[in-house]
Design goal:
The complex is a heterodimer of chains A (about 100) and B (about 675). With about 100 residues, chain A is α/β, with parallel strands linked by helices. Chain A has one domain: Transcription Regulator spoIIAA (2-Layer Sandwich), CATH 3.30.750.24. Helix content of chain A is about 40%, strand content about 35%. A five-stranded mixed sheet of chain A has the order 1-2-3-4-5. In chain A, helix 4 links the parallel strand 4 and strand 5. The model of chain A has no long low-confidence stretch (mean pLDDT about 90). Chain B contains 14 helices and 26 strands. The longest helix of chain B has about 70 residues. The radius of gyration of chain B is 65 Å and the shape is rod-shaped. The chains are: A alpha/beta (about 100), B alpha+beta (about 675).
């Protein structure tokens, strides 16, 4: 599981590659810290290469969402696969994020 | 016991005192009555004797008076005087002799002394003569002198008859007067006291009593017995008015009370016998009580020993389940329930060199003898399998050893299996035991012979291949031959039905279901035989992890290895990950060396095709199914960070259940296909 963050204009794009399971979530939580500090930006969570997510990963997504809100930022989840969409549906996350 | 002896002692003492008191009262009352009776009797007899004596005395006096009256008519005629004496002697039976003695020189022609005397010589013969002479100077004799001066009868003291007959005699004298009233002679009538013989009939009131007759001057007509001094006597006496004699009845004390003493001795003997009987009864009842106590103590000790034996016997059998914490390819559960405290059933298993050695056996008979053989079988199994892997060789060696030392003709039915855990090949040898059940079907077995019957018997082994999640169920006939109150047997079919219904369950659940099924069937009937069951599931699909979330990727790899449908891969993966993460985070607070065990089996049942996952740990009790339902309709701001895991498990799986089994948390997740 790797996480890369790139800046593009007013956007911060985080790309998740691999499986975001409980074990990986520990490192990922560290890796996404820059997103938490960003203010007045558009945060893109690029899930095009995210294979799998567990509740630990969802917690990270929720944390980012909450932090962004306090800093006036907006979070967009992009390109989730069918499995992850299913998880988003089950957890109600589908309505918490703007999904593209 | 001490207490008992003491109370017995007092019972005996009280009984003895009571008996003694009763017999004393009875003795003294009887004694007074007997003495009174004796006195009454003595007085009566004394009265009779007195009357008899008086009768004779009066007769004699009458004879004497008659004699005087006759003599006075012709007092000058000596021949007439002779006739008088003779006739009086003749007329009176008891008269010894009759005499009339004249004052000296009354008949000068007959000399100075004249005494006419008649004596009865025999019944019909009377001898009459003149006996007065200078040698027989009657004037000097007491009777003459007294008769001379007394106008009434004068009685002499009794004296011994001078004829030498040793008979006592008394004399009665009266004066005889002439026409002028001058005393000219004295009449004397002698009374022989031989009639007193008759009196003795009255006075001899007891066979050994005595009597005495003593005159008022102390002449002992009937003397007192010589033996009188030094003994205790009861003396009753009476003075006879007519003669002034004393008659005494002398009765030795022991004679009066002879009967009483005899009764006393009898009562004493009976009392001793009674006491003896009482002592015997008390002793005997004490002994039976003691025997009972001893028997109870012995029984208690035996029960204690049996309890210890039971503990020892239980300790011989593997009893930690699951038995091999690190072996994911085996899940085993076994149980023995002896009909008595200890029994002859056994099961055993252990792993050596990746081979599972196991056996189930049933020793003929029950109780202690069977348990001893059972212990032998178990050690033989362990020692032989420590170097031998061929099932039929193991059984043959056990058989030879048992048959050799089988003095009691005990035998053992035994199933021995050796399962190669790498290949799944199971070699087994059945020594007359019930065929095990493999995946719901009876395993084909060659019966061979039970162990211990015939030394040198050539046992044959068989083999089969065990596959993924195969379940082998072994048992003793205590299961199939369990009887209900109507003597109906539980039977193989009921066993197979329960095994079918429990398909896919873990060995422990299967064994417990059968145990409950048998208990249900048997009802109130007594357990008739030892009951043993052993369930072995081979190649359980399982993974063992530490409670470290870095182990989570191995869980995903394991799930990938299960050939589950692709579309279910993610949901299963996610559900398991959430459940396992939960355990890793909460079951072992403060440590990360706790074990988390996940098992998978696939079950194809009439009601559907299921995947069953079991997650178990030995951590603190924790039931995730009790977690509150997460509210997924809340906004991002309102939602808590956690609580999603168990929500996902609920969403992804069809059934979720928790149980705490001994020290384990067991969470079962079911997904229908």
């Amino acid at each position: 599981m790797t996480t890369t963050i790139t800046e593009s204009g007013n956007q911060l794009i985080a790309q998740f590659i691999g499986r975001l399971d409980t074990a990986a979530a520990v490192q990922t939580a560290e890796d996404v810290k820059p997103l938490m500090e960003a203010a007045n930006r558009e945060i893109i969570l690029d899930c095009s290469r995210l294979e799998y997510i567990s509740s630990s990963g969802l917690r990270i997504f929720l944390s980012i969402r909450k932090e962004a809100a306090t800093h006036g930022s907006k979070v967009i989840v992009r390109d989730i696969n069918a499995d992850i969409r299913q998880v988003f549906m089950m957890t109600g996350f589908i309505s918490l994020f703007e999904i593209q | 016991m001490q207490q008992k002896t003491k109370s017995n002692f007092w019972i005996i003492i009280v009984a003895a005192v009571l008996l003694e008191a009763i017999s004393c009262v009875q003795y003294f009352t009887s004694r007074a009555a007997i003495r009174e009776e004796a006195e009454l009797r003595a007085r009566t007899e004394l009265r009779k004797a007195e009357l008899e004596i008086e009768k004779h005395t009066i007769e004699m006096e009458a004879a004497a008076k008659t004699l005087v009256m006759l003599a006075q008519k012709h007092v000058d005629n000596p021949e007439y005087i002779y006739a008088c004496t003779s006739s009086v002697v003749g007329a009176i039976e008891h008269t010894g002799s009759v005499a009339i003695a004249f004052v000296p020189d009354y008949f000068p022609q007959h000399g100075r002394y004249f005494e006419a005397c008649s004596s009865r010589i025999s019944k019909d013969s009377i001898y009459t003569r003149q006996i007065g002479s200078a040698e027989h100077d009657y004037t000097q004799l007491e009777w003459f002198q007294n008769g001379f001066v007394h106008d009434t009868c004068w009685w002499s003291e009794p004296y011994l008859d001078d004829s030498g007959s040793q008979t006592y005699v008394v004399s009665c004298s009266l004066p005889i007067r002439d026409e002028n009233g001058n005393i000219v002679a004295v009449a004397c009538v002698d009374l022989a006291l031989d009639y007193l013989q008759k009196v003795s009939e009255y006075l001899q009131i007891y066979p050994k009593s005595h009597y005495s007759i003593v005159s008022n001057k102390g002449v002992e007509i009937v003397p007192k017995p010589d033996t009188i001094s030094g003994r205790k006597y009861h003396i009753f006496d009476e003075e006879i008015d007519a003669t002034g004699w004393y008659i005494s009845i002398i009765i030795p004390e022991e004679v009066i009370f002879a009967d009483l003493n005899r009764i006393g001795i009898l009562v004493g003997v009976l009392m001793i016998l009674g006491l003896g009987l009482l002592i015997f009864i008390l002793w005997h009842s004490g002994r039976s009580l003691q025997r009972l106590e001893v028997a109870n103590t012995q029984k208690q000790r035996m029960m204690n020993e049996l309890e210890i034996a039971q503990t020892i016997q239980k300790a011989m059998l593997p009893k930690v389940f699951p038995p091999f914490a690190d072996r994911l390819d085996l899940n085993i559960y076994g149980m023995v329930r002896p009909a008595k405290e200890i029994g002859g059933d056994l099961y055993d298993f252990y792993v050596r060199h990746d081979k599972l050695f196991f056996c189930v056996g049933d020793v003929s008979g029950k109780g202690v003898p069977a348990s001893l053989v059972m212990a032998t079988i178990r050690s033989l199994f362990r020692s032989i399998t420590s170097h031998e892997e061929e099932a039929h060789v193991i059984v043959r060696m056990m058989n030879d050893t048992m048959a050799e030392q089988n003095d009691q003709n005990m035998f053992v039915t035994l199933f021995v299996g050796v399962l190669n855990l790498e290949t799944g090949e199971m070699r087994y040898c059945n020594a007359g035991h019930n065929a095990p059940v493999l995946n719901g079907r009876m395993l084909p077995v060659i019966p061979n012979l039970p162990i211990g019957v015939m030394a040198g018997f050539a046992y044959e082994s068989q083999k089969t291949m065990l596959r993924y999640n195969d379940m082998l169920f072994l048992y003793t006939d205590g299961l199939t031959e369990a009887e209900d109150t109507a003597k109906e047997l539980f039977g193989e079919q009921r066993m197979l039905d329960i095994l079918g219904a429990m398909h896919g369950e873990r060995p422990r659940q299967i064994v417990e279901a059968l145990e409950a099924g048998v208990a249900d069937f048997v009802g109130k009937a007594e357990q008739s035989d030892d009951l043993t069951m052993l369930a072995i599931r081979y190649q359980t699909n399982a993974i063992l992890m530490r409670n470290d979330i870095q182990q989570i990727p191995t869980l995903a790899e394991w799930i990938d290895g299960l050939r589950i449908p692709t579309e279910l891969n993610m949901p299963i993966n996610l559900a398991l990950e959430e459940a396992v993460t939960n355990v890793m985070l909460y079951a072992y607070p403060g440590r990360n060396d706790g074990k988390v065990f996940v098992e998978y089996i696939e079950v194809n049942e009439p009601d559907g095709h299921k995947m069953i996952f079991t997650i178990s740990d030995s951590g603190v009790p924790f039931d995730p199914t009790q977690s509150p339902e997460a509210d997924i309709t809340l906004s991002a701001e309102e939602r808590a960070i956690g609580g999603l895991g168990i929500h996902l498990v609920r969403q992804l799986m069809d059934e979720i259940s928790y149980e705490r089994e001994e020290d384990k948390n067991i969470l079962t997740l079911v997904k229908n296909l």
